[in-house]
Amino acid sequence: MLTLRLTFSWLTVLPVRGPAEVDRRAAGRAIALAPVAGLTLGLAATAVLWLLEPAGAAAGFAAVAVLALLTRGMHLDGLADTFDGLGVYGPPERAREVMKSGGAGPFGVAAIVLTAGIQSGAFTALAGSGNWYAVIVAVTLGRVAVVAACRHGIEPAPETRFGALVAGTQSRATVAVWGVVAAAASVFAVPGLAWSGPLVAVLALSAAGWLAGHGIRRIGGLSGDLLGAAVELTTALSALGFVVAANSV
To answer: Do 53 and 123 touch, CB atoms closer than 8 A?
Structure first.
């Protein structure tokens, strides 16, 4: 329970407290349970969509806004910082400096607008078809991407406290288990076309993995910003993929 409390204290605004001191062992256990927090956030987003579904597109925007509120906006902030950092010329030190600047540049703003817009539109479409389950899966998949990004062999970026705690903490077995669970859960995300849900999940996680890998090479290791970008990108691509796959049935 202490590990789960740490997971929720890191990844949500829920009023729970983790241990006073956190080492890499505790951090690794907390990250391993990140998809559980994702499931909870997915349920919250779905509840908002269900309540506001008659409002059409406004329901999708509200769901995205609620997710941002429930996560302190830190994943969107990480997304913006990541794209600002990747968009500058210079050595890794320069990219890390831009990512730590605190402001959002043109690349970051564009990334937030595009990603949030995709999520909002996809959530609205899924709600309109009554496919609430796919929304839950999409949000949860975003946190599966966090587990995968922290796998063994990944080094933290210099001067990143959170990256130093979580980078390289997830065993291949943990990553594989969550990958299998994600694929199995995605079977039901596209009614009438069982194979397409896992395909969407794999493609979305692969795209997020590519982005994280590129970011790791660009800035010299893993940071919390890269994890936030992986969350938002996976959620957006999986939700959009579920919509596209459902429309092809």
So the answer is: no
Total length of the chain: 249
Find where tokens 């406004």 sit: 58
Residue 163, number of CB atoms within 10 A of its CB: 24
pLDDT tens across 171-208, in order?
999 999 999 999 999 999 999 888 999 999 999 999 99
Q: Write the Ramachandran bin of 153: left for phi over 0, alpha for psi from -120 to 50, otherwise beta.
A: left
Q: Which two tokens stand for residue 66?
A: 């609620």
Range list of H helices, 33-91? 34-52, 57-70, 74-86
pTM of the model: 0.94
The token pair at 235 is: 């959620």
Nearest CA among 175, 133, 148 for reference residue 233: 148
pLDDT digits (tens, 9 = 90+) for 81-135: 999 999 888 888 898 888 887 777 888 999 999 999 999 999 999 999 999 999 9
CB-based contacts of 103, cutoff 8 Å, min separation 6: none
Identify the burial level of 193 via C-beta atoms within 10 angstroms of its C-beta, where 0-12 means exposed, 13-18 middle and 19 or more buried.
middle
For tokens 């831009």, the residue is 98
| Per-residue b or e along 25-53, where b marks 16 or more CB atoms closer than 10 Å to that residue's CB | ebbbbbbbbbbebbbbbbebbbebbeebb
φ and ψ of 173, to 5 deg:
-65, -45
